[in-house]
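G., the chain you wanted modeled:
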Amino acid sequence: MKTRRRQRATGSRRSLTKEKQPAVLTVQTQAWPIITSRDGWPDPPMGKRPDRPPPERRPDRERPEERPPARRPRNGLDEIPPPPTSCSGRLHQVREGDTLFRLSMKYGVSLEAILDANPQITDPDTLVVGQVVCIPRPGESMLEILNALLTAEKVETALYARGLQSPALAGLPAEQFAYFQAGLSHELAHIDALTELGASVPFNEFFYPPGTFEDLTTYVNTLLTLETAGVSAYIQASDEFARMGRFDLARLMDRIMGVEAEHRALLREVLDLVPASNLCFERAPNLPVTEILAALSSFVQPNQFDGQSVGPIPLPTRELAEELIGPHGCPNPRPDQ
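Predicted structure as tokens:
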């Protein structure tokens, strides 16, 4: 396939040897948890815990809380099991009377999640006073995940719509301008899908960094930051829904994530970043969806970008959105089409 070369109005040409670095989007209150450098990414999740011998079979009438409570070590510290090698949560030092079941009830975490976080525990029925147990973070609810994703989609939708009417995109070639027309169509379809699942957030006006709608680089970098975070959030949402047994929702998250990843590559192409598609695997930090999207709070209140912002920018009406999208609406605006 031929490589199309073009010269922008500014006179810059695409470099095939050195990738231009996008501008950094600065957030005053909290930084994006999505790291744009190659280093510093969160460690991968702990591996599957090693096989454990099956626990001794107990009478069916016994309830989980009736399992033996923690006992005191008989020979001093030598008998206390080692702590977990790492912990994504909080550490609990076992006290008399503790059982894993009681700890799961106390902290609102499933027994299986506690065992997954503590591969050093080989017998779930044996705890020793003084040993250290990792209590993982409680899982997010389905509605919390959907609401966080809906907020992200709304922030992006308002950004796409205002951008199509702004000087920032006015000088783009028609084929690249169409990326943003189609992107608006995609985000509106994602809003509809999430809303039909019960997601609801009160935000309909948003704030963006100064100069977002005046300068192409600032505009595209702001959108690229949001899309990159969205890709990671949808990957994590798919994983969490699968663990909930909601494989229908996990599949939907995968389908939306695939389109968000296309957006990321097309935005890099507009910025003349070579190659536009630059990853073998999408980055997926092992964090709750609400943490991945934590910096969205900066877009729903004014003056969060070094004390400044542009806005409020409202969501477009459906009539305005159809006019802005023109002939580039997506052919399957519903996931069942």
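Residues 142-328 form a domain with the Ferritin fold (CATH 1.20.1260).

Shout if anything looks off.
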